[in-house]
Design goal:
Elements (H helix, E strand, L loop, with lengths): L2 E8 L3 H14 L3 E4 L3 E6 L28 E8 L5 E8 L1 H19 L3 H36 L3
Antiparallel strand pairs: 1-5, 2-3, 3-4, 4-5
Length: 154
């Protein structure tokens, strides 16, 4: 549940894919260890305050560095049929779930000061929104899109 997996394909040679991923990780502030056909993050940047520059990026339309919302990213390449390289992306979303719990607790504290139906609506709305934005989008799809854009995937 805390691990999100995506699969991509690319026409690039495996070594070119690894070099592009190294460049992407370095530009986004992700520390990593590289194997022959894999790259594993050892430390992703943490941004708690909104003024920290590691939270922001110019590589996507949102303007946020999605790697600050996840605990780790592992990318593994496998040679496929012909010139196709299969790319498996494993995203550890533990940090993302912690942020969802944080927002749920904040909304729960605010809900205690409200009347019963409005407080319940606030709690449910904030928790669901945090889940979809943090887990679904920032901690998943946006990382996949950045890697896909980096590799010029179809």
């Amino acid at each position: 549940m805390m691990q999100k997996v995506y699969q991509l394909t690319s026409q690039l040679p495996a070594q070119a894919i690894m070099q592009r991923l190294e460049d992407l990780f370095a530009k986004e502030g992700v520390q990593f260890r590289r194997g022959h056909l894999s790259i594993t993050s050892t430390n992703t940047p943490i941004a708690i305050l909104g003024i920290q520059p590691t939270l922001y990026s110019r590589r996507n339309w949102v303007g946020l560095n999605p790697f600050t919302f996840v605990s780790g990213v592992d990318v593994c390449c496998k040679l496929g049929d012909g010139d196709v390289v299969k790319i498996d992306i494993h995203i550890n979303q533990l940090r993302t779930f912690i942020w969802v719990v944080f927002w749920a607790m904040c909304s729960l504290l605010a809900a205690f000061g409200m009347s019963e139906p409005e407080g319940a609506i606030l709690f449910i709305a904030v928790t669901v929104a945090a889940w979809f934005v943090l887990v679904g989008f920032l901690g998943g799809l946006l990382i996949k899109k950045e890697i896909c854009d980096c590799l010029n995937c179809p």
